[in-house]
Amino acid sequence: MSNEATELLVSACIQSLQAYPPFDRMEAEWLRFLAQRVKLAHYPKGARILARESGVARTLHILQRGRVDVLRSGGDRKLESSSLTLGPGQSFSIGALMAQRETVGAYVARDDVFCYELAAEDFFALTQKSTVFNLFCTQYIAGLLRQSQQQLQLQLAQRAAEQKTMNSPLSIIVTREPVAVAADTPVRRVVELMASQHLGSMVVVDGEQQPIGIFTLSDILKRIVLPGASLEQAIAAVMSPAPQTLPLAANAHDAALLMAMHRVRHVLAVDEGGRLRGVVSERDLFKLQGAGLRQIRHAIDAATTIAVLQHARDDVRQLALRMLSEGVGAQEITQFISTLNDAVTRRVIELNLERHDFYGIDWAWLAFGSEGRDEQTFTTDQDNGIVFICTDIMDREQTQLRFLDFAREVNDDLDKCGFPLCKGNIMASNPELCLTLEEWEEKFSQWVRTPEPLALLNATIFFDFRPLHGRFNLAHRMRLSLLRQTQGNPLFLRMLAQNALSVAPPLGRIRDFVTDGDPEHPGTIDLKKYGVRLFTDAARLFALANQVEATNTVARLKRASSLMKISADETAAVVDGFNFIQMLRLRHQHFEQEHGRSGDNLIRPDELNEVERRMLKESFRQARRLQVRLKLDYQI
Predict the structure, then answer these.
(1) Pick the residue with more confidence: 302 or 447?
(2) Residue 257's pLDDT band (boundaries 50, 70, 90)?
(3) What is the pLDDT of residue 140?
(4) How far apart are CA 38 and CA 530, in angstroms?
């Protein structure tokens, strides 16, 4: 072919491509580079242009004319048409090409199709040369994330809509069997029942189980304690007679109106015979209306007992579900959960400080692990410690014993509030984690100087710390000391990199995912161990190597990447991958807890839809790219 004919074809290709993004914005030099290297291929109607059985993708396809149906693969199931059809100007096989893998499904010509095809080596060369084209390709994962978030949002919005509302009848609001007593029951027995069953009120009934009175917590103070009334008298003498009742068919709006009209906080639900069937409290209606962040935070800060704080976890979970259904991102939700959990922890500490006097002592309560990173999900246990200053005039052993007594009470109360005691005893009540500032610095120094396996494991937990209460400057001094020690110890950083590489992304060469990591749960992937950890380990290492004080994974990645001259687009793709895995964890844990299970991190890839599977694979590939960088940086 003559040079003139070749130039005409190149010009025609350029003109055709310039009608579509990103080619309409590409630098002229690199658009010509592309046009000179593509080949125009024809596929008749029904032809399979690309499929899994074709093997590792070797070509970028850009539709020049015609339409292509994207068929999804269902494992051993027959291929079925998806709702996705590609038209002129659209590209496909970008994800497979960038990851050097086979495509997920199949691309079939709906009618006669003409495609520009670019070989893999030219594709990668173009991504290096053209900023616009590189951005287009790296934003591919962001596009998948948006699709997945939209689907997740719709799913959770539906579930949120199915939750109880103010239009719900009382019959579905009162799920707990009512507790009631007879009129001649001694006050002492009533108070004991209320305390043992965590009740805010007690209903008094007659022989037909019809309510004749109600006795509340506030009545104890007003009618028993202040007047000095006998605890042996019958409850009938101090109850409020003729309580407000509504039939089970009435709704929550009716109950709210009745409470407002009569200035009461409880309404009793009764059946057709007037018999007691349940109690609706002001708090029940508050939960139905959906507590907001400010309301929950105010309730936590104003709590005067641990019993009040025990309800905070349910409020946080309900608000987090609403945030998920409204499309709020995983990073914001995990920080929101951590923020409110911080508030609960601080309030528990404050309530316990009423019984402990540490006046004149500089100290701080520390959070480790996911709470230290501001990344708590619905399922979390306690990881905490104490740092304090011991002056020359203080007895170090006695001071530690005082803090340990205090910490045991705080840990027990946090357990009551829904934060289980740590099975590994990573708690402030452990003498090994209730230390002076100098002892913490020496502990860190020992781990850095002698990076044995246990020291590296400790680093992944304790180097992610954050102060929650007390003198925050002590934690800052710990951080500066840690960064000074790690900066001057390349051996420790290299060992930390090796530890980060000890777990690989669960991607298979033949199957999409490797799901046999846990023999007790075949077919699952632990998103914490094989997903989140890969990102947090790399981010921690980047932070320590580059003197970044942040503990949050996303903040570490962004700040360290800037110092390491990693492009913002590449960093954004990594962050998107991390956030997607966090989103899957949140959704899975919520659904598990909805069904009465404790909630874990084990998901089944086969139960994900096609977009989620593609996004999860891309997320794991972003983790793999982080690990490749670690291998190169530390020559592993």
Answers:
(1) 447
(2) confident
(3) 63
(4) 39
